[in-house]
Write a structure and sequence with these properties.
By secondary structure, the protein is mainly α. The protein folds into three domains: 2-62; 68-108; 116-168. The protein has helices at residues 2-9, 14-27, 32-42, 52-62, 68-81, 86-95, 102-108, 116-128, 137-153, 158-168.
Amino acid sequence: MSVNASEQTALLTASEVRVAALDLLARREHSAVELSTKLAKRFRSRESDPGLIERVIRQLVSDGLLSDQRFAVSRVRQLSGRGCGPARIRNELRRQQVDGLVSDSLQEAFDSPLDWAEAAATVYQKKYRGAPIVGDWDTRQRERSRRLRFLQYRGFDVDVCQALVDGDDQGGDGGVE
């Protein structure tokens, strides 16, 4: 019983923190802030030097094992693969506190520049499968709004969203000339 009690009250060592950090990094890229938060949460019940986790994080960065740039590029690829547009990706990177790397990451993530209009068209086609927007004016406006909200939530430019929705709107002008 004294062995368990002494293990729990023993000071946290840098090697324990490093092993836990490498375990997390082996699964996927992390930002420095995210890794620091996860390590603090994992070892919150252990007594430790207040700056231990930050020192281990700095060492991992200097060893090249942890990189916010690599994390940002990886996250951009992941989100664009899920059908997210540039605005949504930028917001996600800001939320994860790597927003200083946003413009570089969007460009570095792909070998050739990504055509965001084509990506939006793919997402739109997958969701609506070319179904036309039909009905009276009110019905069409509700459906147009719903489709525009969907694309804008995904982070695509308003002009691109508008063009895609306009292409499916089968209603007449309905206006007086």
